[in-house]
Amino acid sequence: MSNREVVTLSVGGVRFVTRASTLQQFPESRLARMLNDDDREFKLVNGEFFVDRDGTLFSYIMDFLRTLQVSLPPDFSDYQRLQREAEFYGFHLLADLLSQEHLLKPRLEILEVRVALQEMQAFFRIFGSCSTTVETLAEQITVFTGQQSGQSWNSPFPSQKPLVPLPLERPSHHDLVFQCGTDYSAGDQFVARYVSIKPDNRKLINGTNVLGLLLDTLLKDGFRLISTRTVSSEEKVECYSFERMKRPAGLTV
After folding, report:
1. 226 and 113 together in one domain
2. How wide is the angle at C-alpha 197 spanned by C-alphas 114 and 206, nearest 5°?
3. What pLDDT digit, counting tens, does each position of 53-72 carry?
4. H or E element: which one contains 101?
């Protein structure tokens, strides 16, 4: 029987078809012994091995055998039951990994956007629980600065003068700061700051437009807006809170 290339199993009525070599990766397991007719728990019926266990949970065990990774759905919660099934089949390494739920469960990622919208300027500060996400946003956001006349500060098109990119302020690994709009310079000249957020190529100077693009970028990246609140009514500071379930990387054996 061990020489069969394709093996069919019926686990709790759920049918699985796989290679014998897949089941033999862990020689000490009951599935490997099953192929040698060395386990009475598995009954050979009409050319199929039958075992009275949970077929749904067995699908995760088959995925483990095929990929040698533990990768579970974000909403998975039956860690103890799956661990028990892994122990039944003799996959003790998998059972040990499942006992470490904190390594396998999705992590909740929090992001907060604070914005102060003033008449001619807008100030942004982004806080994130994941420094990698904040770093990615810092790479997406570019602030360009240049001088222009007071007659054209609110033009939707940047000045024809060359714009110079400015580095974003990074108070820590978990936040970044930038602003857009105009500052009074001298005479009728203003210093204008435009914001560009990849993959959008526009350079925006209006704070409301920048906020809209930033929120849209976060939503497309898998974040969910969970609350908005006014931090300071006098300074017109608004706070937008987001969350995202971040799936852990599959553990490789």
Report:
1. yes
2. 60
3. 999 999 999 999 999 988 88
4. helix 101-104
